[in-house]
Amino acid sequence: MSTPALAAPALPLHTAGPYVAAAYIVFLALVLIYVAIMATRLSRTERDLSELQRDVEAAAEKPEEPRDLEHVR
Amino acid sequence: MSSVVSESAHAPAPTTYGRGLRGLAMATMATVTVALALVFFYAPLDADQGFIQKIFYIHVPLAIVSLCGFIAGGVFAIGHLRTGERRWDLRSYVAIHMSLIFSVGGLITGSIWAKASWGHWWVWNEPTLVSYLIVVLMYATYQPLRFAIEDPERQSRYASVFAIVAGAFVPMNFIAVRLAQNYVHPRVLTLGGGNLPGPMRLTFFVSLVGITLLFVTLWKYEMAAKNARMQIRRLRRTLLGEDGVRPLGRSAAPL
């Protein structure tokens, strides 16, 4: 346990292969999970944006309040 | 309407994080692809470790970039404390958040390598591993710390102080471990150039650049997403007034 690196011989290809594949799959999985989470957030942002557009259009359709004539002058 | 004009006239110019993101993403993709090609088709097999050494090209860059990201989080936090601008807090938050993800990748890939090379998933008497774990666990408290503080102003200030202190701890921790004796962890990189042969060194540095670009791309991506949400909220407030803005729930992220 004290010097495991020195004691360990090189693994043959058929044994080492799955470990190497696992490490690179972990990396790929992390990136893909992150992208999936960000895609969910993007759809939420898109929903917020369309909601805002709807609210602004609804506010624009409301009849305008009478203006303060003194202020205009 | 006049209030809208005056508000937008005094507001700071909006920062756009999406600018250049496409080019950066393409550069990242190209570099990571080249790095993977070099790893599997160009770099020679290590004489001692054989094929298992290929993990090194992903594990070490992930660990290095995550540590640099933690330090960057501290630097951004200095910007926040100096200027009081929330965007620096957001930058710091996203850098630390990204670094945590990368460090989890570094820990898992390192653990896989340890199992293949040493026969153990984790070795507790190896200083590099344990010190890295301490750093990761320390940063794992960052989000709970933010979440524990309800007032956004205090939350961002306390988080910045944490990010600066922890960011200063990262290089000190790294140097202390490097200066320690009884190395078990392979020392393939040193200030003197290390003991990597040419093709391996080239492959390693391309991998490092690829992972760094990936970090920056994802950081910009998340910054752009958060910034867009903030801008929608600001726009809603400007166009519809306070009544048009939904109250925010408690969050660990800067608001």
Give a written overview of the molecule.
The complex is a heterodimer of chains A (73) and B (255). Chain A is an all-alpha fold and 73 residues long. Chain A has a domain of 28 residues. Chain A contains 3 helices and no strands. Chain B has one domain. Chain B is 72% helix and 0% strand. The interface between A and B is large, with 34 and 44 residues.
Quick take:
Chain A is mostly helical and 73 residues long. Chain A is 78% helix and 0% strand. Chain A binds chain B through residues 1-5, 8, 10-13, 15-17, 19-20, 22-24, 26-27, 30-31, 34, 38, 41-42, 44-45, 48-49, 52, 55-56, 59, and chain B through 36, 46-52, 54-55, 58-59, 62, 101, 104-105, 108-109, 112-113, 115-120, 123, 125, 184-186, 214, 218, 221-222, 225, 228-229, 232, 235-236, 239-240, 244.
Mean pLDDT of chain A: 76
Proportion of β residues of chain A?
under 5%
Order of helices and strands of chain B: HHHHHHHH
The end-to-end span of chain A amounts to 89 Å
What is the helical fraction of chain B, as a range of percent? over 70%
Low-confidence stretches of chain B: 1-11
**H/E order of the elements of chain A?**
HHH
Structural class of chain A: mainly alpha
Provide the number of structural domains of chain B.
1
Please tell me how large the radius of gyration of chain B is.
21 Å
Parts with pLDDT < 50 across at least 5 consecutive residues of chain A:
1-7
Instruction: Sum up the overall morphology of chain B in one term.
Output: globular
The coarse overall form of chain A would be rod-shaped
Largest sheet of chain A: none
Quaternary state reads heterodimer
- How many distinct helices of chain A? 3
Percent of sequence in beta strands of chain B:
under 5%
**Helix amount of chain A:** over 70%
Number of strands of chain B: 0
- Strand tally of chain A is 0
Gap from first CA to last CA of chain B: 26 Å
